[in-house]
Structures are given as structure tokens and as C-alpha cells.
Specification:
Blueprint lengths: L1 H9 L1 H20 L1 H29 L1 H30 L15 E11 L5 E6 L12 E3 L4 E8 L4 E8 L4 E5 L5 E5 L7 E8 L9 E4 L11 E9 L6 E8 L8 E7 L2 H15 L1
Antiparallel strand pairs: 1-2, 1-12, 2-5, 3-4, 3-12, 4-5, 6-7, 6-9, 7-8, 8-11, 9-10, 10-11
Length: 282
């Protein structure tokens, strides 16, 4: 307390001077319209800058929740697109006399998930997402991002799942040239994470550089027509009956952050029928 009193006494002249300066400024601003307008304008500028900075800081911390909402809404829209495509495909195979509403209009669904671990440097790559069995995920479900296919669900835990990346040389995907029936098998051969190869395309298939490669729909893993990549070139094939295309992948696996898992309500039934057919053949 004694030290505080000594400090005040020592600098009392400055305190008195500061007090009179403040009083003078208050009188100047309140007693003159011009000075008051200048003060208010300057104060608004300073206050606006402070509020803008605070808004940017708080906005940054809310980006995650905003992104999750956007992904959820995007997933709902893609659900609708997939199911509309499915209904159109069903209507195409019905004659005009027997045109009936499709019995199961909501065949496909998406579950949005965040990538929490990812590899691209190995020959057999996997990544992990923050959704699992409690979210309805099962082994064999297809996984995509906003650009194209990214992998297949391998193992599920209650809250997380491991995904076989498209960048896995053991994994093959049924694909085709867009707007054609020319089907082949897509595989990654290691090395460049942006390049894969569409193999076993029939020799008579026609294509052009820049054409789009999409999923064929010949499995319950991916619906037909999901983007895979773009044709870069034709490469030499070991079988004269088929040819191979070099494909630039649509998805960037080095910056994979948010994906969607595709749920097909027919998957269990179709897979069980396929197993039955295999048993009969044996």
C-alpha cells in the first residue's frame, strides 16, 4: 500500500495532466458537431474492425460444424439423384402398357464420413473413416467422395471403419466408358496416386482421349455412372482381344478428407443369390 501511494505521489502531475486532457476531449466532442461526427465515424471504423476480426476467429472455429452440415445436405441430394437414376433405369425396361411405379424408389443411400487416417505411399493402401456398424456400414459397401469412387468398406467397428483404397493393387473395380456398354476392370498398379488402368476393354470398343470412365453398375458396391476418371491414353495390352486405357483418377487421394458410403438395400439379397448361383455351379 505504501509503495502504491509513493507511486501516485511521484507521478501525480501526469495523472492530473491526463485527467484534464480527457475532460478537454470530452468537452470538445460533446460541444462541437464536427468533432462529434469525426469521433463517431472513427469509433465505428475501429469497432467494425474489431467485430470483423472476432467474427473471423469464431467463424474459423465453426468451420467443422458448417462443413458437416454441408456434407450431410450434399449426401441427401446425392441420395435423391441416385434413386432418381435408379427409377429411370427401371422405367426404361418396362413397356408403355405395363408402366408401373417402381416398388422400391429409395434403393440407395449415403452416409457421410470424415477420413481420419489415410495412406497413398504403399502398394496396398487403406484409409479409416469415423463411421461404423452403428451407422449401418457393412463390409463391401462402396465409398466415394465429391469427385468419384475412392474405395470399398473392408472392416467395420462400432464407430469406425477401414476402407480398401482404390490405390490398392489387389482391388479391382468394374467400370465402363461413359454412355457405352464397353465394360472393363479398373486397377491401380502402384506409384503415381493419380493414375490407374482400365483393362479388359473389348477390342472393338471406341473411345477418345478425354472420355470419362464411370462405374458399370454390375455389382452392389457402386451404382452405375459414378465418375472414376478420364482417359489419357491407350497402352499396350498382353491380349490382342482386349486393350487397356491409362486413366487419370477423378479423386485426389492425397487430400482425401470427406467421403460418403453407399448403402444399397438390395445388397444382401443380391449377394445371397450370387452365392446360391456359385453353389449350383459347383
Amino acid at each position: 500500500m505504501k509503495n502504491l501511494l509513493q507511486f501516485i505521489i511521484k507521478y501525480s502531475a501526469w495523472f492530473v495532466f491526463s485527467f484534464y486532457v480527457i475532460i478537454s476531449l470530452v468537452l470538445l466532442v460533446t460541444g462541437n458537431n464536427y468533432q462529434r461526427s469525426v469521433y463517431l465515424t472513427s469509433a465505428n471504423v475501429v469497432t467494425g474492425s474489431i467485430y470483423e476480426g472476432a467474427s473471423q476467429v469464431t467463424g474459423y472455429f465453426h468451420l467443422k460444424s458448417i462443413n458437416e452440415d454441408l456434407q450431410a445436405n450434399n449426401a441427401l441430394l446425392q441420395n435423391e439423384v441416385l434413386n432418381l437414376k435408379n427409377q429411370l433405369a427401371q422405367y426404361k425396361v418396362l413397356s408403355a402398357d405395363s408402366l408401373l411405379p417402381f416398388k422400391y424408389p429409395d434403393r440407395f443411400g449415403y452416409v457421410a464420413a470424415a477420413v481420419i487416417n489415410n495412406n497413398t505411399a504403399h502398394q496396398k493402401n487403406f484409409f479409416t473413416i469415423d463411421k461404423g456398424a452403428l451407422d449401418g456400414l457393412k463390409s463391401g459397401m462402396g465409398v466415394v467422395d465429391h469427385n468419384g469412387i475412392t474405395g470399398i468398406v473392408n472392416v467395420t467397428g462400432p464407430h469406425m471403419s477401414r476402407i480398401i483404397s482404390l490405390l490398392n493393387e489387389d482391388q479391382h473395380f468394374s467400370v465402363k466408358l461413359k454412355d457405352t456398354e464397353f465394360v472393363g476392370s479398373l486397377t491401380w498398379k502402384g506409384g503415381d496416386p493419380t493414375i490407374a488402368y482400365a483393362e479388359e476393354l473389348p477390342r472393338h470398343a471406341t473411345y477418345e482421349i478425354g472420355d470419362t470412365i464411370v462405374t458399370s453398375g454390375y455389382s452392389t458396391t457402386f451404382p452405375e455412372g459414378i465418375p472414376v476418371g478420364m482417359v489419357l491414353a491407350r497402352v499396350k495390352s498382353g491380349d490382342d482381344s482386349f486393350f487397356t486405357l491409362k486413366v487419370k483418377l477423378a479423386s485426389d487421394f492425397r487430400s482425401l478428407s470427406t467421403v460418403r458410403v453407399i448403402k444399397d438395400i438390395y445388397k444382401t439379397e443380391i449377394d445371397s443369390l450370387s452365392e446360391f448361383d456359385n453353389l449350383k455351379m459347383e
